[in-house]
């Protein structure tokens, strides 16, 4: 070995992968618009409601699956399953609990306050009248009124900001921007990362520009690993924020072990473990203090109980952090 050869440093190599991911990702189209919206939203919610520990808390809820394009002029892509129901329902309960919410969702997936509406609200909630006007169908009137008024109330009060992504490149850039923008809130910020994020991707510079041709025979493609940004979020982007990730598995035998290992590996404050088939009925919240199983109560959403538990833990995290800061 020559005297100036350096030994392999896994941390350095990981940070290089992270830097490469962002350096080579196609730039966000609306970066300056998103940045302005984030700044205004955080500013508005930092100067309203209380002071010290009672100041308004802001949570970033991520929701829906990210896509992995296979071509730069994308015709085909790999997708991650998520209807966005968890994120949308959780957003409603966070707002009810007094949080301001940055709702970062996959375009076209479920939105807060729309869960009780039919799949195609425009076509199924409205009807035309004899005098060529449009009116809400009687059977949908209550649901439509409630959805519109709750949504407008949240926007009017400036406590709901909705941002949209499709690809893994957009998602991670927007998450980074949001986390860095929330950094100064310290422990009052929360990340509730329910989005289903791709583990593998095609780096932009190695991606075919045009539609891949089937005449060339079977497709043989190697996907690179997406760097695990959770640890970067905790270490660099927003180190004092209360951070919760989700772990989805289809094999119940490995679910809790995988959740515990995510907790320690990425230094999360909690990991919500759920199985695909039962995710609306049962989850387990894994923390350093133990595991709490939550089951859906009849007549409500499971997210109601998840948010109650996490809001309590978040309040304790704020107290602890502020006390530690006062002592040091
Ligand atoms: O969006 P949805 O309500 O259909 O499902 C929610 C979920 C299963 C995507 C979410 O609870 C979750 O586990 N997200 C993280 C998935 C992952 O391990 O990447």
From TrEMBL:
InterPro entries in UniProt: CoaB-like_sf, DNA/pantothenate-metab_flavo_C
Biological-process GO terms, alphabetical: coenzyme A biosynthetic process
Pathway(s) this gene product operates in, as recorded in its UniProt entry: Cofactor biosynthesis; coenzyme A biosynthesis; CoA from (R)-pantothenate: step 2/5
Keyword Ligase: yes
Domain named DNA/pantothenate metabolism flavoprotein C-terminal: residues: 176-289
One Gene Ontology term, aspect cellular component: cytoplasm
Domain of life: Eukaryota
One example GO MF annotation: phosphopantothenate--cysteine ligase activity
Keyword list, A-Z: Coenzyme A biosynthesis, Ligase
Family: Belongs to the PPC synthetase family.
Protein's recorded name: Phosphopantothenate--cysteine ligase 2
Species this protein is from: Spinacia oleracea (Spinach)
Biological classification of the source: Eukaryota, Viridiplantae, Streptophyta, Embryophyta, Tracheophyta
Record gene name: LOC110801139
């Amino acid at each position: 070995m020559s005297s100036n050869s350096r030994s392999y440093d896994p941390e350095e190599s990981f940070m290089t992968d992270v830097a490469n991911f962002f350096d080579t990702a196609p730039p966000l189209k609306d970066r300056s618009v998103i940045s302005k919206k984030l700044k205004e939203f955080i500013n508005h919610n930092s100067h309203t409601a209380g002071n010290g520990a009672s100041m308004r808390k802001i949570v970033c809820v991520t929701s829906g699956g990210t896509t992995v394009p296979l071509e730069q002029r994308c015709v085909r892509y790999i997708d991650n399953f998520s209807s966005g129901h968890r994120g949308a329902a959780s957003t409603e309960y966070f707002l009810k609990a007094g949080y301001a919410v940055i709702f970062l969702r996959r375009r076209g997936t479920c939105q807060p306050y729309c869960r009780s509406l039919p799949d195609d609200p425009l076509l199924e909630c409205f009807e035309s009248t004899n005098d060529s006007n449009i009116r809400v169908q009687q059977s949908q009137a209550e649901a439509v009124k409630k959805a519109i008024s709750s949504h407008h109330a949240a926007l009017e009060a400036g406590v709901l900001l909705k941002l949209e992504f499709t690809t893994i490149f957009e998602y991670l850039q927007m998450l980074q921007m949001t986390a860095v923008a929330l950094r100064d809130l310290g422990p009052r910020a929360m990340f509730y990362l329910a989005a289903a994020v791709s583990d593998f991707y095609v780096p932009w510079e190695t991606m075919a520009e045009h539609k891949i041709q089937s005449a060339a025979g079977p497709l043989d493609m190697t996907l690179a690993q997406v760097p695990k940004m959770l640890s970067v979020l905790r270490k660099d982007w927003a180190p004092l924020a209360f951070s919760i990730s989700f772990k989805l598995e289809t094999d119940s035998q490995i679910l809790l072990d995988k959740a515990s290992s995510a907790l320690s590996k990425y230094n999360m404050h909690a990991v919500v473990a759920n199985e695909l088939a039962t995710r609306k009925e049962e989850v387990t919240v894994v923390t350093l203090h133990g595991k709490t199983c939550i089951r859906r109560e009849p007549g409500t959403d499971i997210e109601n109980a998840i948010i109650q538990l996490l809001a309590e833990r978040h309040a304790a995290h704020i107290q602890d952090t502020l006390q530690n800061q006062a002592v040091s």
